[in-house]
Design brief:
The chain has about 200 residues and is mainly α. About 70% of the residues lie in helices and about 0% in strands.
């Protein structure tokens, strides 16, 4: 049976052309929103502003998607998405307006803030985007894995990795051997790793 949660890149882009395909759009959102949100925060936006950028970018993608034509020779989908998000990041800075209550009673025009932002075409910005991209892939893979594996097994993995409980503590909690705890952790970790690799195959 085909894996409906992990479509190929071509099929995903084709499927989200249909705005009524809520499953594919959820898959798209789960994969991309943390990427955009994380870059916004590291560029200096507030969490609220970052969330606005995510929402506005997703709306823009939905608007363009029905007529979107993917051409790898022109550029990657990630690069196109970056452009869409970057415009909306700058819009958020512009919306702030002049900075009030500056030291000495000065009013700082927000254009100075925009002018002092790092050049978005520099290698530093591309590196930031790539780093956040890798994290977004991992987070999306974790979400997909949680949907697929037994809830108890994922809870064991979460307690070990995120809550930093010891294998002995987890074994006692679930009345199982420490060996089985390690086995569960290994299998869930391998599933997440597999999901990351599969995501990379269709998101470029």
């Amino acid at each position: 049976m085909p894996d409906r949660l992990i479509p190929t890149r071509a099929s995903l882009l084709a499927r989200i052309k249909n705005l009524e395909d809520h499953e594919s759009w959820q898959d798209f959102f789960d994969t991309y929103w943390k990427l955009i949100h994380g870059v916004c925060l590291k560029r200096g936006l507030t969490p609220t502003e970052a969330q606005d950028v995510v929402q506005e970018t997703m709306c823009a993608v939905m608007k363009h998607m029905p007529n979107f034509k993917y051409d790898r020779t022109v550029g990657t989908f990630k690069a196109w998405l970056l452009t869409m998000a970057r415009w909306r990041m700058n819009d958020q800075f512009r919306k702030r307006g002049p900075v009030k209550n500056a030291p000495g009673g000065a009013r700082v025009d927000n254009s100075e803030v925009l002018n002092n932002l790092p050049d978005e075409t520099t290698d530093d910005f591309e590196t930031l985007w790539k780093q956040e991209w890798e994290q977004a892939l991992f987070d999306a893979a974790v979400v997909k894995t949680r949907r697929k594996v037994d809830p108890q097994k994922f809870q064991i993995f979460d307690l070990l990795v995120k809550q930093h409980l010891s294998p002995v503590q987890v074994a006692e909690e679930f009345h199982m051997s420490v060996t089985n705890v390690y086995l569960v952790k290994h299998r869930v970790a391998e599933e997440i790793k597999s999901e990351v690799e599969r995501l990379k195959q269709y998101i470029v």
